[in-house]
Amino acid sequence: MIMVNEKSILCAECGKEYNIRQNIFHCPSCGGSLDILYDYKKVKLSLNKKEFLKQPSTHWKYWMFYPVDPKRKITMGEGGTPLIKSKLFDNVWFKCEGINPTGSFKDRGSSIEITKAIQLGVKNVCCASTGNMGASVAAYCARAGMRCKIFLFGRASNIKIKQIEAHGAEIVEINGDYIEALEKCEEFAKKNNWYLMGDYSYRGEGQKSVGFEIADQMDWVPPGNVLAPMGNGTLIYAMWDGFKELKTMGLIDKLPKMIGFQSEGCSPIVNAFKKDYTMVSPIDNPKTLATAIECGDPLDGKKALNALRDSGGFAESLTDQEIVDAQLLLAREEGLFVEPSGAVSLAGYLKVRKKLNGKVVCVLTGHGLKGL
Q: pTM of the entire structure?
């Protein structure tokens, strides 16, 4: 018998708990972002450690840490991406997320979100996106036979637009930034009773598997530092959440430092971290060539701050030129072609490496063809 180990939905802001059958995307009380709570006694019962450790590292290996029934999963073989040792830098590895079905780490979250939506009986889905998430949601909706509408911010790349269209999703182009697209999408969902997808609680649950796989691929001894780009902040928080869960289950003994990077043209999380704020303030007119992380009012900004601070990590901003230089270095010296946002973690490493001790994993979030 398969057990779903999800216990309740928790507001990360005010601490109120909600029933797992509720279709909520923000806290009904305070508007805060949400977390999923688990019954870890059930998780432990679901985890046959001897058999678990023998299995290859893939996204659905870690089903017991997800809030869905894996017998009814929507999957296209996401996850199981390579962890490649750097040729140029000692103690550096690259987690290559561009190998996922639609070319970015977003597929991990889409698999869980769409599976959850199917299990809730959802037929119509809408999502605001800078491009990668829209392409991923459109693909998984096609796989699940669901109707899909993507609210796309004005600077999405042509290839991402073509990718979304190819999967049969309807595109609503917004002549503005990501936050405007998000507002329009949430307004549409509420008015028309469509199910929201995006950087909400269930997507974060799927993105935990980046952290699970890093630990697994390093023989359950996590690196000292995990470096990642930050847009809405969901990925860095999700990985941190995943590492903590592995420690709770006794699968790892130590936790890595989480280190996040943003472009100077859109760095609200970095600004809040450096000023020691507990909340992230939105910024006006965000702009960076790393459009996949151009989120001026990050949905999971506070959770990202918590991950950075609780892990003993930090945040730093980068120039667009530093990002482009890292993208070129990856392609010409390491043989890895990534889009600009995918190069952010290496650009960050090059800037802060003197501060780092121990092994480093740079998460390369999207394939280079996504940026054309």
A: 0.96
